[in-house]
Design a protein that fits this description.
The chain is of the alpha/beta class. Helix 4 packs parallel to helix 7 and helix 8 crosses helix 11. The N terminus is likely disordered. Strands 3-2-4-1-5-6-7 form a seven-stranded parallel beta sheet, sandwiched between helices. The longest helix has 55 residues. The protein contains 14 helices and seven strands. The relative contact order is 0.14. It has a domain of 256 residues: Rossmann fold, CATH 3.40.50. It binds guanosine-5'-triphosphate and magnesium ion. Magnesium ion (MG) binds next to helix 1. Guanosine-5'-triphosphate (GTP) binds next to helix 1.
Amino acid sequence: MSTAPSSSSSGIKRKPSVIITIGMAGAGKSTFVQRINSYLHSLDPPSPPYILNLDPAVTQVPYEANIDIRDTVNYQEVMKQYNLGPNGGILTALNLFTTKFDQVLGIVEKRADTVDHIILDTPGQIEIFTWSASGAIITDAIASSLPTVVAYIVDTPRSSAPATFMSNMLYACSIMYKTKLPFILVFNKTDVQPHDFALEWMQDFEAFQSALASHSGSHDSEGEPTYMNSLMNSMSLVLDEFYKHLKAVGVSSMTGDGVKEFFDAVEESREVYEKEYLPELERSRAAREKTLQDVKDDSMSRLMKDLAVDRAKNPDAALHDRWASDEEDDDDDAEINIIDRSEEPWPGQYIDMTRARRQDGEQINWPRPS
Ligand SMILES: Nc1nc2c(ncn2[C@@H]2O[C@H](COP(=O)(O)OP(=O)(O)OP(=O)(O)O)[C@@H](O)[C@H]2O)c(=O)[nH]1
Ligand SMILES: [Mg+2]
């Protein structure tokens, strides 16, 4: 891993920025990744990013991924073997891939000296990445090693109704508070509908409330505001605070409009990462280590007390209470390797599902994802 400080003036390569694209199904995540990929290629000099596709179910991606989950896990096979539906299949495929994420991180860190951007494309079903243990593990692992930003892709034309806009923003809010990472709202598809209305609603909650009031269905038959209307009015006040912590850019992944502004926002987010996320990460890491150490010290002192009592009771047995030091743990999963497409020939090597399958009579319960 590069330990270089983030400064190019000192002549040492600064760490690359990681961009995690998250968004509702069909918001345009993959198209956006393709667009920023081609923008980075078109720079002078070109600065090709390193791209990871984490969507196991996608049939075609519009860019060339350097690491593709589909090379490691066969999603169709996972569905069959575990008797799962499409969402359970994606979730389980992501879980299996996450068991190998230390290898991915190793490859990515090796590339940190040669690339300026690392981009992650996530599965279409947003909750699979944002609410699963694997999504959190992947996000935390990468963010604790490199400056990371979440690009939350919004389908602008589909968010033009106040109620849809608000539910999308609430989702964004929950992801921001869960990851605690710098956050950029990317209003995509501005070629279809400009995002001015969204900016106005974010800057002025009264504008949002009046849009809400004029929207059909906001009043009941007696002319009173509906329950939903009152709820959204109050929520808009709550979200006002959330909007203050955000950067918002309008982008068209189709035409390339706004991509430069997006990268300006990524650059600003690096500072937020370094000033806010990193110190917080170090604080929580130190707290976790202290708790662990306390638990270890406590159990060690109890063990020593027990041993002392045992030895006092039975001095002969105390001579034999040693265990052989030359026994080592077997690490039997070392043979499945993550493929860096830019280095290795592929098609790749899949995680062998037949080894994961339950044998007859074996009393193992493979947990079904809920
Ligand atoms: N007009 C327009 N269409 C877009 C834009 N970005 C994406 N699309 C279209 O939106 C649709 C969905 O795009 P994808 O990139 O597959 O979206 P996604 O979020 O990756 O989808 P999933 O991974 O399936 O959730 C495609 O038909 C794209 O062509 C844009 O900026 N403008
Ligand atoms: Mg996609």
